[in-house]
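Issue 218. Parser rejects a valid record. Input:
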Amino acid sequence: MIRNLFNILVATTLVLSFTAGCKSKPKKNQRTDTYSSGTIKFVSDESFRPIIEEEVQIFEHIYPQAKLIPEYTNELDAVNLLMKEKRYLAITSRNFTKEEVQNLKDRKFLPVAIPLAYDGLALIINNANPDSIISIHDVKEILRGNLNKWDKLNPEWKLGDIEVAFDNKQSSTVHYCVDSLLGGKPINSPNIYAVNKSAEVIDFVEKHPNSIGIIGSNWLNDKRDTTNVTFKRNIRVMAVSKLNPATAENSYKPYQYYIYTGYYPMIRTIYALLNDPIHGLPWGFTNFISNDHRGQLIIHKAGLLPYRANMQVREVNVSTE
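Output the parser choked on:
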C-alpha cells in the first residue's frame, strides 16, 4: 500500500514537472514585437527599395528598440509569403485580390491594405538615343511586339531593335504593364529582357544604346546609391504622352507635379498589405509611412506623391535675363 502510494506520488510529481516545463517553453513562432519595438522581417517589391530603405532608417532612429529587416523580392513572392503567414507585411503595387481576402478571412485573419504613395513608372534611355519623347500608344505597341525597330518610330533613328529591360519577370513593374497597359494580355515583344533588380536595369540601359528600361521613379532620387540616374551621364528619362503622336508640348516626365495632376500616364499606387493578427511592429511601421508626417515627408522628398498629400502648387517666375 505504501509502495503504491509512493509510485503515485512520484508519477504525479513527474507529470507536474513535465507540465510546468511545457508551459515555460515558448510556442513556435511566438512573437514579442510591439507597435514600436522588437524585431521583424517584412517583404517588399524590389522596385521600391530606395524609398523603403530610407523609411526604415528614420523609423529605427525614432524608435531605437525597433529592428526592421526588409527582404526585397518580386511582387508575386512577396504576396505568397504573406499568404503563407511567413511574413506579416508586404509592400507592393497592388491591393489584395478578392480571392486572397476570402482565403485569409476563411482562416480567421483580417487582411488590410493601406495606400502609401503614388509612383510613376519611369522610362529610361541611353544618351545615344536621338529623342526622349514617346506616346503611351507606342509604349503599348512595343510591349505587344508590333513595334520592334527604332526606325519605325522615326526613319532617322538608326538604333536597330528596340530592347526593353525589366527588373524582374515577376515584379510589380511587369504586373503594371500587363494589367494596366495591355489589359491583362501578355508582353509579346521578342526583345524583352528581365534582369534581377532595378540597379541592373540602369546598367543594362547604359550599356545598350538601343534599349528602354522601365523602373520605379523612386530610383531617380536615390541619393545614397551610386546607381542613381543622376550619376549616370549616359542615361536620361523619357517624357511620355497620353496623346499620339507625342510632342514636346504634350509629353511629361514622372515628376511629382505631373503625377499629382495626372498628366503623366504611367502611375501606380504603392500599398502596404498587412496580415498581422497581433497589431505589432508591422502595423507601427505602416502607420509611420502612411500617417506620420515624417514618413510622408520622406516619400515627398523622394519625388513620389504621398497618398495623403496636401499639395500646394505655386507659380514661379523664371528670369530669362
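Fixed in the parser; the record now loads. The chain is about 35% helix and 20% strand.
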